[in-house]
User: Fold these one by one.
Assistant:
Number 1:
Amino acid sequence: MGPPGAGKGTQARHIVERYGLRHVATGDVLRENVQRDTELGRVAKGYMDSGQLVPDELIIDMLRALIADLPEGQGVLLDGFPRTVAQAEALESMLDALGRRVDLALDIEVPADVLVERLSSRWICRTCGTSYNAATHPPQTPGVCDLDGGELYQRDDDTPGAVRKRLEVYAEQTAPVSAFYENCGVRRVLDGNRDRAVVEDAIDDAFAALAA
Ligand code: AMP
């Protein structure tokens, strides 16, 4: 969990590589649907471009399908889901039915002014999804991914208006999900306003505590 720009996607890459989890990012799945011009993509695009959440029923159905396809016993990293208490409750009942549970809810906190700066200068590789920051972590060649030479792009919802709306929506609808996982005893708060390697170490500590 964490507001837009907190570094969820970046840290998700570290987590799936290190812990062998399957990365399920609802925002990525929605963007793929928009690109393929599916029925879901056509409905979702308007909400996404204006920085609003896609309605719960659509997202919950989409997640149910994604989870149903996983091999038994495969651990999952959910990125960008749940974003409302209704989604968190739906997830609980889906997992109950499968005899599974949420072990850890990592909650990355970053001040709002830092988020706005990060998102407005964010460039992402079309091929591998690596994020760059034009000011603090630029690619070696502008517009080109250092890792695989893929084209870098800016997201349609990283515009100032959509970013403002996404932060508002986060405070109103997603912040209560933190309290939900706090009550379940699985929430771990991380200070995301530090170098990515330092945040990675804090995440590793959280996983180590889980295994202990
Ligand atoms: P993200 O890539 O996680 O920042 O998501 C981009 C956009 O996709 C969000 O601003 C929402 O419009 C939509 N979205 C992604 N995940 C969800 C979710 N769990 N519930 C509702 N909308 C979502």
Number 2:
Amino acid sequence: MRIDLHAHSSASDGTQPPADVVCRAAAAGLDVVALTDHDTTDGWVEAIGALPAGLTLVPGAEVSAVVDDGGRAVGVHMLAYLFHEGDPALAAELHRLRNDRSDRARQMVTLLQELGAPVEWEQVLAEANGAPIGRPHIARVLVATGAVATEDDAFMPDWLADGGRAWAPKHAVEPRHVVALVRAAGGVTVVAHPGARERGRVVSDAVIESLAEAGLDGMEVDHPDHDPATRQRLRAIAADLGLVVTGSSDDHGEGTGHRLGCETTSPAAYQELLERAQLPPVSA
Ligand code: AMP
Ligand code: ZN
Ligand code: FE
Ligand code: FE
């Protein structure tokens, strides 16, 4: 059984439509794939409608959270799975996160313009095409206009990196609150890529402990941004705290070079998450 529990579509900042993501998942030899777009469940319906025979979909989302870690604001991405989409409290929080992304993207475009970068708000809107706007959308416009050579270059401190010249913070919810909201909506939570050092979003052990106390279900240990030493360290923490260990590609389509299935979750870990969630996954 090949299981990948983290993938994005054009419903957020992935490059491929949800139907294409599930087809590519099947083509990559996966038996299970989770659709985890940033702060939205909008891709679920299309993904379910296009589900190839033999592939199981775990409906999910990657919720933007921020925690005060000893006086420093640290972004934490919370993977949420198998929750009731219509749960009013969770739906309201996701709505708020999406609205704020739009305001924040406008701020970043203004900052870029002040820095002399050739980018128009309309181009960013067209690139996002109705999806919650993320920095990758702005980065793609910067590449298209020739301001930078690659998307990664756009994430340098000169431009959109955390704390960079053209970066603006986004509204985010407390990760412990995400755990509670998702639990109340019948779902389970897994902290995403907590050791992604080069992207400046290492989540401290203290924060992981406090999330575990709040009812966090699992930790994404096998992630393309985690080096072997990081994985080993995180695996030990997860074992200590009784967290389910997952592995996932965090595929964004072309944005990450089509890597569905490059990291996987063990069937036992997957079963454990299913047992903790109220809703079953979806099969064709
Ligand atoms: P945002 O959610 O708008 O803050 O944008 C962050 C997203 O940009 C992450 O989810 C990543 O998928 C993507 N991204 C791509 N390249 C980078 C990078 N070099 N550093 C940080 N984020 C990146
Ligand atoms: Zn993303
Ligand atoms: Fe993430
Ligand atoms: Fe992601």
Number 3:
Amino acid sequence: MTAGPTTRQIQASPETVAEAARCLAAGGLVAFPTETVYGLGADATDGNAVARLYAAKERPAFNPLIAHVADLAQARTLGTFDGSAERLAEAFWPGPLTLVVPKAAGCPVCDLATAGLDSVAVRVPDHPVARDILRAFGKPVVAPSANRSGHVSPTTAAHVMADLRGRIDLIVDGGPAIVGLESTIVACLDAPVLLRPGGVPREAIEAALGAPLSVAPAPPEGDPDAPLAPGMLASHYAPRTPLRLDARDLEDGEAVLAFGPVPPEALARGGRTLNLSASGDLVEAAANLFAHLRTLDASGAARIAVMPIPRDGLGEAINDRLDRAAAPKP
Ligand code: TXA
Ligand code: MG
């Protein structure tokens, strides 16, 4: 194997934002904070840079990427916004919502980034460092979560370094990601469809649309590799340690991913326990999810027992991630 780039980690500042933009312009790979998770950025218009990004992540090449832009005006240069898309952009941008829209004529995003589709996923992140980098760079930036494919998403610069050292050029440290879950993805190609639950609860989207949102159909029988959002592949979020979901008791050798009050039984058994939210707050739980999974995965436990987590609000996305993490590996 040839030696990769030296990965430098720098604190966010006006100077380092300018440096990040220069690195992107030179075809570099730059990890930066967004409000959801850390993204691994590359120039969306540069096929070579995007190819390096897929390689660094070891990501299946059929998995299309989200183009990040500074504002709605720039988003309109990439895609065509129908009434629903306009309404959702107005209500939730900047913020943890990605819209999949038809590519605009002359859309500069390279085909590798959209995996050859005639639609494009666009998002305006709500994070000062992300926004400053996007403004300074001026072109769209593709940014999947800054982890190797199949690993849990990073919510701190240290997580990115642990996963991608020697594979990317720069990590801009802007503190922990606040939301802790990826963006909600809604396709506005026809009637709006929820492709991935995430940082904006479905209820909020339905309220903005004034109509219920349909959910992406399961992939066609015999063709599991062709879901609408290929990132929804069954084992996408996969720690190495097996997970046991909806655990109401504790077995020997298990660590515990708790939610709400921990049963005294779990404490007595002495398994490593981390609580997503002792008070049962789903927003706090979302912010802790990936970091806690990562810590328990590294704890040497034979299995991680996950206490039941309600499925309303952000609970839908949290359970979606846990279901994927628990799915058998292909
Ligand atoms: O919060 C987020 O969205 C983070 C931060 C860094 O912004 N990014 C992120 O990107 O989660 P990624 O690459 O991990 O997820 C992209 C998802 C995948 O499920 C992909 O299949 C879907 O977006 N996607 C992208 N373009 C699409 C398209 N044209 N049609 C359908 N799905 C698409
Ligand atoms: Mg990801």
